[in-house]
Amino acid sequence: MSEAPKNLEVAPKHAPTLYFIAGFKMFKGLLLVAVAIWFFVVAGNDLPEMFDRFLRFVDVDPEKRFFANIGDWLDTITPRNVQAVASVTLLYGLFLLVGGSGLALRAKWAIWLAIGESAFFIPVEIFELVRRRPLNSAGHLHLLNHPRMALGIVLTVNILIVWYLYENRQRLFRHHQ
Fold it and tell me: Is the four-CA dihedral 102, 119, 159, 26 of positive or negative sign?
């Protein structure tokens, strides 16, 4: 009887959830890189004027109080502020692209990078859920407020991602050990 060699790598199992997570992270990364590039492009422009032109393009009166307040707020933003936000956005977008690519390629380091990145935001999201106490018009706590629901969904997705990756790390990345 012949035995199979023990040094052969185990073929990776199909993992559609892993590839969905990797694709989602890469999509977010690409989106953030695009936003960062746009921020770099508009950093030196007159933001209130750009906003005014946009409102006129979509046929909205820029003189309404709500839009005028946004224009006034945009006037306080300096090109240096925009560049700082663009730099952080670009770095985080690249971080997500690297992590998502690593997950798709099943690199062992990527599992811990993805777990850490997703777990990092869980305490912040919990804090925001606890801090925000939306009241309805009668002054009663209203649990189905839209922003609160969205934050709850994001928190749930992050918890599920961390749980899935942690629980399945041995099975999904066995061929790299």
Answer: negative
DSSP for the chain reads -PPPPTTSPPPPPP-HHHHHHHHHHHHHHHHHHHHHHHHHHHTTS-HHHHHHHHHHHTT--TTSHHHHHHHHHHHT--HHHHHHHHHHHHHHHHHHHHHHHHHHTT-HHHHHHHHHHHHHHHHHHHHHHHH---B-TTS-B-TT-HHHHHHHHHHHHHHHHHHHHHHTHHHHSGGG-
Note the pLDDT tens digit of each residue in 33-85: 999 999 898 887 888 888 888 888 888 887 888 888 888 888 888 888 889 99
Q: Are 141 and 135 in contact (CB under 8 A)?
A: yes
52, 71 in Cβ contact below 8 A? Answer: yes
Amino acid at 38: W
As given in the structure block, the two tokens for residue 63 are 């003189």
Q: Which two tokens stand for residue 161?
A: 């991602």
